[in-house]
Amino acid sequence: MSLTTGTSTEETHPRLAAGPASLAEGIHPPSLSSEVPPSAPSPQPRRARDQNVRVHGAAHRLLSLLVAGATKSAAIVALLLLWETAPRLGLVDRTFLPPFSEVATAWWALAADGQLADNTYASLVRSFSGFGLALAVAVPLGLLIGWYRPVAALLGPLLEVFRNTAALALLPVFVLLLGIGETSKISIVVYACTWPILLNTISAVRHVDPTLLKLAKSMDLSTPRLFQKVILPSAVPVMFTGIRLAGAVSILVLVAAEMIGAKAGLGYLINASQFNFAIPQMYAGIITISAIGVTFNQLLVAVERRLSSWRVSADD
User: Fold this and answer.
1) pTM for the whole structure
2) Which long-range contacts (CB under 8 A, 24 or more apart) does 258-265 make?
3) Out of 66, 102, 153, 192, which could bridge 98 as a Cys pair, Cβ 3.0 to 4.6 Å?
């Protein structure tokens, strides 16, 4: 190699000529911040946010339920306040309408000594027995009359005669024919509950959507399958209107029946309290009947919603 070439090499690469120490100083390692990826976000803030959302949602639902409950119970609370204050202010005679607090005290005394439980049990057994028998008879009969025209033509005149006869008007007849025991009381409940269920079932079957019936018949469904898949689901809302009416009638008619020749029951309790001039106890029995009616109606509403869960709500 020539001297000239070597000189030019040294001038061109001075760091190589200076040695390894100089070379090491000229080389800088890459920054660690450019090589290490950013750390993943911690799951703790996300969990906290989700928990806060759940807490706020639960609080909102609770507040909505409280507002709805206060709205629904406002009229009842106002009535109870009026009931409490009117006798105390002399607006009504407290002998015949005692304050609500005295009625509540009498109700608690009846519940404590077992009279209320015994009489309520007797009334519920009679009422539910008559209601159940009416349901078992009226629903199948209503389906037959509503679907088969010959059956409707045969039984129609007979139904028109009895549907316009009040149950309480026939109460003496039931007592004369069946006695003053349990049979007459349950029978009058069966008679009174049959008509709302029967008439609403007939109307429900006759007003099933014709389009659904045509589609079902085009699929060659048998009559039992047609009732199971089309007619019964479509008829549930109208049928339960009659069933709920029958539930209220079963209690009201029974109370009237228990006032004649009964030795137990809420009707007997009310009648006996009236004769003994125990007015708070009489109102306690009336309140118990009202509470049973409301509870029974809400139970039927829950069953109706369960059976008609396929329907689309208007709020959806």
Assistant:
1) 0.71
2) 258/123, 258/126, 258/185, 260/171, 260/175, 260/180, 261/175, 261/180, 262/180, 262/185, 264/118, 264/119, 264/122, 265/119, 265/122, 265/123, 265/126
3) 102
User: DSSP 3-state assignment of 209?
Assistant: coil
Exposed/middle/buried for residue 25 (C-beta within 10 Å: 0-12, 13-18, 19+)? exposed
- pLDDT, position 11: 43
Q: Is the pLDDT of residue 275 over 60?
A: yes
Which of 94, 85, 105 lies closest to 284, judged by CA? 105
What is the number of alpha carbons within 13 Å of residue 3 lying toward its C-beta? 0
Cβ atoms 198, 133 nearer than 8 A: no
Nearest C-alpha neighbor of 84 from the set 97, 95, 70: 97
Answer for the pair 242, 199: CB distance below 8 angstroms, yes or no.
Answer: yes
For position 6, what pLDDT does the model report? 43
CA-atom Rg of the chain in angstroms: 40
List pLDDT tens digits, range 168-213: 888 888 888 888 888 888 989 999 999 999 999 998 888 887 777 7
d(CA 309, CA 2): 102
User: Do 89 and 232 meet the contact criterion of CB atoms below 8 Å apart?
Assistant: no
Displacement of CA 226 from its chain's centroid (Å): 28
Whether 255 has a pLDDT exceeding 50, the answer reads yes
Whether the Cβ atoms of residue 242 and residue 200 lie closer than 8 Å to each other: yes
Amino acid of residue 24: A
* pLDDT band with cut points at 50, 70 and 90 for residue 137: very high
Q: How far apart are CA 164 and CA 161, in angstroms?
A: 6
Query: In Å, how far are 119, 182, 188, 252, 299 from 255, measured between CA atoms?
Result: 11, 13, 11, 5, 20
- Nearest residue to 131 via CA among 186, 182, 184, 200: 186
